[in-house]
Amino acid sequence: MKCPYCGAEESKVIDSRPTEDNERIRRRRECLNCHMRFTTYEVVETVPLVVIKKDNSREPFDRQKLFNAMLRACAKRPVSYETLERAVSSIEQSLFSSYDREIPSVRIGELTMEELKKIDEVAYIRFASVYRQFADVESFLDELKKLVGDRKENQ
Fold it and tell me: Where does the record locate the signal sequence feature (predicted)?
């Protein structure tokens, strides 16, 4: 670590502790050349997720965009913001733990539908109808039949 006072590259760590938000490590250092003390912060470097869209274009993963899509699906439904936040966090955790840095949008859509199915069936159907772009009433009814069948199996 380069000393901000004399530019020397050798220093020793005197004290280390996490910051209040537990997102970084605060380190007090002393320059071995001029003996001045300074503070550095260490953060985890994350590799951003890239979403591969259906047209093969790529864009950075946007947690807020996912949250907004789920919020629209849950409009006028008895679903709290906290529940949606937990669902988005769960999806995000699944994506980050997959080791793939490029995620197909289809995978995000499937994870979103899984979470919405657990939260609210109406929100699930709303999201699925837009996401799957049902071509006709028959394909919509097929999805409803699957949902009813899943509900009967879980009872």
Answer: none
- Interhelix angle 121-131/105-119, rounded to 10 degrees, is 160
39 and 85 both lie in a single domain:
no
pLDDT digits 0-9 by tens, 84-97: 999 998 998 888 88
Query: Where do we find the tokens 């009967």?
Result: 152
The structure's pTM equals 0.62
Give the residue numbers spanning the domain of 68: 50-153
Q: For residue 155, give both structure tokens.
A: 């009872």
Residues 77, 99 within the same domain? yes
Determine if residue 102 is left, alpha or beta; phi over 0 gives left, psi from -120 to 50 gives alpha, anything else beta. beta
On the question of pLDDT at 14 being above 90, the answer is yes
Q: Give me the torsion for CA of 155, 112, 21, 45, rounded to 10°.
A: 130
